[in-house]
Design a protein that fits this description.
The protein has 264 residues and is mainly alpha-helical. The protein folds into two domains: 3-101, MazG-like (Helix Hairpins), CATH 1.10.287; 117-259, no CATH class. The protein contains nine helices and three strands. It has helices at residues 3-11, 27-53, 60-81, 86-101, 167-177, 181-186, 195-200, 204-223, 235-251, and strands spanning 127-134, 137-144, 147-153.
């Protein structure tokens, strides 16, 4: 049985069918929504019994199966009352989860492969970040293949917090994503042979976004014990922080007006 067939059959047992055409709107949707909440509570209750009673709760799997079935009925009912099909919902959800959490092979990404070598990010280079003291202030100096690149960096903060090391993020983008407008500019590898690419992908706006993401990563880590021992990040939390950074970055472009979607 596929999901759409199940949904159609389940609708035949709906005790509160939609009456919106007759003006009696509300209960037809509220009942299954409350049903979802109630059955979720039943599922949690069964798990509580399992934690309390252990193997003596002999019907645990059967009860879980029953409660999940009830949840599926209510999900299908709510979907039907919004004129949605379970099959479409399931396929869209799989696409979203694959895009978000599926296998990601970034090893073959080379956004500038079609350009001449002098406009490509180098495929291999050696970076040295060293701390120097200039006029009594600690700064980080970056050398690429022995040559000083860019300005010496400070924390740009009243209270030292180590942000002067943040070029490691840009370098990480190059290594993992094959992307960093900031490093491309520092290495003088902007793709000037194609003006549109140079302006849009390698220009000032792209560099602001690059710096914004670095600031996001640094501030998020700073507020979460530098992510020590953390292997995964909460998607919704990090997405919300990303939206704030992108809004800030776009605000740095006076001529740009854009509506950002709210984070889910």
């Amino acid at each position: 049985m596929n999901l759409n067939t199940y949904q159609r059959e389940a609708q035949k047992t709906d005790r509160v069918p939609s009456r919106r055409k007759s003006g009696d709107a509300g209960n037809d949707l509220m009942v299954p929504l409350l049903g979802l909440a109630g059955e979720t509570g039943e599922l949690l209750s069964e798990y509580k019994k399992h934690l309390r009673d252990g193997d003596s709760h002999l019907l645990f799997r059967e009860r879980v199966s029953e409660e999940l079935g009830d949840l599926l009925w209510y999900v299908g009912n709510v979907a039907a009352k919004f004129d949605l099909k379970l099959e479409d919902i399931a396929q869209a959800n799989l696409k979203k989860t694959r895009d978000r959490w599926g296998p990601q092979d970034t090893g073959s990404i080379a956004f500038d492969a079609e350009f001449e070598e002098h406009e490509r990010l180098p495929r291999r280079f050696e970076v040295e970040l060293s701390e120097v003291v200039v006029d009594g202030r600690k700064k980080i100096r970056m050398r690429v293949n022995g040559k000083k690149i860019g300005d010496d960096l400070t924390d740009n903060a009243d209270d030292p917090d180590g942000y002067r090391f943040h070029d490691v993020f840009h370098l990480g983008y190059v290594a993992v994503l094959g992307w960093s407008p900031v490093i491309r500019k520092l290495l003088k590898r902007k793709r000037k042979s194609t003006p549109q690419v140079d302006e849009v992908q390698d220009g000032g706006r792209a560099q602001v976004l690059d710096e914004g993401v670095a600031a996001l990563v640094f501030d998020y880590a700073k507020e979460h014990r530098w992510l020590e021992g953390v292997g995964d990040l909460d998607y919704k939390g990090s997405a919300h922080e990303t939206e704030k950074i992108v809004r800030y970055a776009l605000s740095c472009q006076p001529s740009t007006m854009i509506d950002m979607p709210s984070s889910a």
